Amino acid sequence: MRASALVRAGQFNQAARQGAYILIALALPRLGVPRELIGEWETLLFLGYLLGFGWTTGLLQGFLVKMGALSDRFGELFSRQAVQVMGGISAGLLLLVALLHQPFFTLLQIEREPVGWYLFFILLLSRWPSYCFEQALLLQGHTRALLLYAVLNSLGLLIALLLPLYLGHPFLQAVQTLGAFAGAKVVVLLLWTLRPARTPTTAISALATGTLTDWLRVSRPLVAYATVGALVTAADPWLVNYWYGGDPEVFAVFRYGVRELPFLAALISGMTVVAIPLITRDRAAGLVELRNQSRKLFHYVFALALAMLLTADYWWTRVFTPTFADSLPVFRTYLLVVGCRLVFAMSVLTALTETRRIYLWGVLELVVNVVLSLLLAPRFGLVGIVWGTVLASYFHEACLVLYLRYRTDIAWREFADLRWYFGYLAVLFAAYWAV
What we know:
The protein is an all-alpha fold and 435 residues long.
């Protein structure tokens, strides 16, 4: 199957999931959910990101590298074992958090448990292992199965949470329904991992087990790097809670403002899932494919960012209701970070396994982000905190590009069309200052 077809299937899967959460965010204020409760829901999503992003992202990137080096029959068994490992880690981590949640909340400046806190664990237990499941379907060419899964998963999320609210039930009951849906998904994933492989020989099983060990070894620096990245992202919400005394309404205003450009993560993830294994197998061809695919993203992503930036005054309160009118300046500023998402130096480093000390650049970004945010927050409030993130993100990507050149002699222009990139970036920043 052509790489472009796999990219589109992966992008659809990611877009469907992200679209479900966007629709939930749009629906909650329209269904009469108070801003304080919406703030608690956003706190749940933030905690889920903080607990899961680092280790799941690192393991998933290592998974892509190993799958790129395996044949189909070895990859099938390895992927099922990988889902089981992800499920075991998920259960252990959630048990630890359940036991130590109070100091965890104190550290994050969260005053009380959000509504549905423990029920949300079931959603996380179903979400984290499913990442490997989704990528296994994609890399093995089962695109129809992946598309069907994406539709059912997204519809299940929407219906489970929003239908009870529409029928007038309290928010806690809606989270209970969501937990029931997530529990059913856990059962389906477990049954998939237990299904006998098509070629279950002892040799294949032993090789898959050895690959599993190697996967965990390769993923260690990626986990460290992604964990630091999660801490960078967590720094802003922590500062918001610190500056505003843990007020869930202010937290909701901030979270609605710092939403990613619609489907940006889906487009990027769908592309890198295919690009990383391709670069692992054939460096030259993979870099060319990444350059071609990223150029297409530049045209769409920057154009969408510019359009949303320039027209936000006309649609923001219509979409998010006047309840979140205060989020608009935060949103406009956070749009500037879109340029950082389109660099892809980290994807190349991952594919070439040049990741041993990469986490140090993440630590440096965290320090820069916190320092800038503390300097800017007293004068500019929430917008100042976001500006700290924007500046630190561009600094971080510049460091990765230089590090990639130093370690591999690969120039940025080899996997990115820089004329289009810098042209669009200049226009985006000019538009921000103009409005």
